[in-house]
Task: structure prediction
Amino acid sequence: MDLTHDVISFLGFGADQVNNPTDPQPVAERAVTDRPRTEIIPREIAPMSIANLAAPPPRLPAVTATAPSVETPLRRLFCVEYARMRSGLAVFGDAKHWWERAKSLYARLPHPVEEAVMVFSGSKRLKRGHVAVVTDIVSPRQIIVDQANWQNKGEIDHATPVLDVSAANDWSLVRVWDIPSGQFGARTYAISGFIAKGLTTASRD
Result:
């Protein structure tokens, strides 16, 4: 009787391991290795276009734009103090004097830019003039402004459209959106220009 063969059989080793005890690879591992390998096919990943990354985000549709609204402050506000607070311009006096008093202090522009103050010239209706803060440029002929006391109630009018109706498209004459009626007002208003803080290029000086 071969006692060694019986002990190996009892421990569960196969005959090939007995015949070749120096084989370092177990039977189960060799069985996995001997299986046919699945062919790996490389997949091409298309690179992202650089032009798409550089393109500006699409503008929100007009239907989602903020609608004109009226805010009632805790106390009555005048247009000049509201414009100073919003723009940071240190210009004082009646609104009709802002254009001249801003000379040598800030950039005076013939066209609107965001955060600039639009100066309405004095008129029969606007005896002291008027100022409003530009919040958005919609098109070459339309902007959005925030302003105070336009309705002479000390209120704040938010997201108010203003339309350039000058013959030369030079923003010298405008019509202002009338919030109560939901349309542009019939009156036209002369504009002196736009005062911008932080810009070094001056115009109309």
About this structure: The two ends are 120 Å apart (CA to CA). Confidence is low (pLDDT under 50) at residues 7-11, 13-33, 43-61, 200-205. Residues 69-196 form a domain with the endopeptidase fold (from Nostoc punctiforme) fold (CATH 3.90.1720.10). Residues 3-11 form the longest helix (9 residues).
